[in-house]
Amino acid sequence: GAVVSQHPSRVICKSGTSVKIECRSLDFQATTMFWYRQFPKQSLMLMATSNEGSKATYEQGVEKDKFLINHASLTLSTLTVTSAHPEDSSFYICSARDQQGLETQYFGPGTRLLVL
Amino acid sequence: DAKTTQPPSMDCAEGRAANLPCNHSTISGNEYVYWYRQIHSQGPQYIIHGLKNNETNEMASLIITEDRKSSTLILPHATLRDTAVYYCIVRVIFGGTSYGKLTFGQGTILTVHP
Fold first, then answer.
1. B46, B49, B101 ranked by CB distance to A1: nearest
2. Which of A52, A107, A57, A69 has the alpha carbon at shortest distance from B104?
3. Which residues of chain B from 21 to 40 reach within 8 Å of chain A, CB to CB?
4. What is the full per-residue pLDDT of chain B (114 aa) written as tens digits?
5. CA nearest to B103, candidates A113, A47, A83, A70
6. Is the preceding omega at residue A8 within 30 degrees of 0, hence cis?
7. Is B94 strand, coil or helix?
8. Is the CB of A45 less than 8 angstroms away from the CB of B104?
9. What single-letter DSSP state applies at residue A59?
């Protein structure tokens, strides 16, 4: 199946710093990628849709100035958590939509963010 | 809101078939049924999808009722590594503002025991 990678797999940072998470589709091109967040014992919540070459679309309640998304190529999207605070600690997961066929979404392994 | 209903948890003995039900009574004609699973602390893994016909791949089988209001995911010979949260999702495949989005509900926690 299609492979999506994320980097880093886990990160610990101090409050007030910014953290960048990369999402790559390794063996297919993806004009659209999605960013999710998952808190402990909860389901995945869609944060935003990342579109190659255009602005991201954010879900209601997600601050676009805090969660900066850049989709510079057909295989790479980045999520930057700016001025991170402890409440931003979560599991961040990306998915990439395969342009072929029914455009199935394939997920990355996730990034565990801990803000101290 | 998720458009599917799944039991919160199920148990299965190793080597036996695991049958996971899903109710999607409000499914529309332009929506497919997708199944993903999430093993602890990992990203979701795609399993299978279908529209109205039964589907089978190397991981599982998907049985969709004729009226498309429910489906069952079948893992034919469950192993301990199949212990995970299984999500049944209906997804718009063309048109509209929800095109392509996946809305995750709470899923079914499947526990496979020896």
1. B46
2. A107
3. 32, 34, 36, 38
4. 458 999 999 999 999 999 999 999 999 888 899 999 999 989 999 999 999 989 999 999 999 999 999 999 999 999 999 999 999 999 887 665 556 788 899 999 999 999
5. A47
6. yes
7. coil
8. yes
9. P
pLDDT one digit per residue (tens) for chain A, 116 residues = 689 999 999 999 999 999 999 999 999 998 899 999 999 999 999 999 998 888 999 999 999 999 999 998 999 999 999 999 999 999 999 999 887 766 788 999 999 999 99
Distance between CA B7 and CA A35 in Å, rounded?
26
What is the DSSP pairing of strand B9-13 with strand B108-113?
parallel
Sequence letter at residue A97: R
Q: Name residue A22's beta-bridge partners.
A: A7, A78
